[in-house]
User: Fold L-rhamnose isomerase from Glycomyces terrestris.
Amino acid sequence: MTDRTPYAKQVLAAQSIEMPSWAFGNSGTRFKVFAQQGVPRDPYEKLADAAQVQRYTGAAGSVALHIPWDKVEDYADLARHAAELNVRIGTINSNTFQDDDYMLGSVCHPDAKIRRKAVEHLLECVDIMDATGSTDLKLWFADGTNYPGQDSIAGRQDRLAEVLAEVYARLGDHQRLLLEYKLFEPSFYTTDVPDWGTAYAHCLKLGPRAQVVIDTGHHAPGTNIEFIVAFLLREGRLGGFDFNSRFYADDDLMVGAADPFQLFRIMHELALREVILPESGIAYMLDQCHNIEPKIPGQIRSIMNVQEATAKALLVDRDALEAAQQAGDVLGANAVLMDAYNTDVRPLLAEVRAEQGLDPDPLAAYAASGYADRIKADRVGGSQAGWGA
Ligand code: LRH
Ligand code: MN
Assistant:
């Protein structure tokens, strides 16, 4: 068996997972948003917290922004601030789901005036990308209906296609549109982009710089997400991931917390096609909410969970796997994968961190830094960041 450790260490040392700025703000459910002490009051403080995750993991080099939650006067200045903190501003997320005008939808709304308003916001997000140097515009639409007959299902698709085409035309040559799908919520009868097939079909019509985002919490229970990964990779239309995990619906829990085996199976498909590293063009992002747990340690733990699933996937003995698959050796092939999955990769990751000059235990290093107490003491007054819902 080939020793895959050197290759795995090389990939792990260069892996980078993007953090969601909103994970550092207060978040919750419709029942309650529990405020936490020390939470950032503005995007500058969110970046400072994200920089802590990068400092201790070395694998979280960029932060996704959400507009208007991260609205600032000067986005170029915010990008400079990020660079000073050794992080980069990554994906720009639009938000057409929190304005009263969007009750019946935004880009799919029956009223052309409301659709225009939504388009103007999406175009403003591209202006922000120009200022921050971001290449990816991530579009998730809450658009849908709650009752049969409420609106024309096909008509809403026409409206969506028209808006997407206008936004796509506005993109610069180095910029992409990442379309995110979601089965349901907040709409409970139809969702206008409910599944990977709908997102894929719209992207095909738009052009090569339109790609699909897989949010691991956006599928019907029992969906084989790694099949979707393998399919979209084969088509060259896998633009990115919103990693999180769930026991029931879009729970937005820490990636790998609810189903580490599923995360391993997903990373296995990505490792097989050698598209784990940033240059693969796949945007690996976390999309989570730390409703009751401390947020910076929650992000650190999440990055570590992705690293562990990735390390196991990189250790899969591909030659043995291929041989067993070719021989129709069902149990043999499955055993090759389970051997990798059942490998304790924590010592390997501790080694990779030590070789990068990082503390082998990022969580312990962060806890010992005293940063958590400092922000609790410093961040008094002002209004804490949140979803503003
Ligand atoms: C929608 C979603 C989307 C973001 C939001 C924060 O559920 O996954 O990616 O805009 O969460
Ligand atoms: Mn998402």
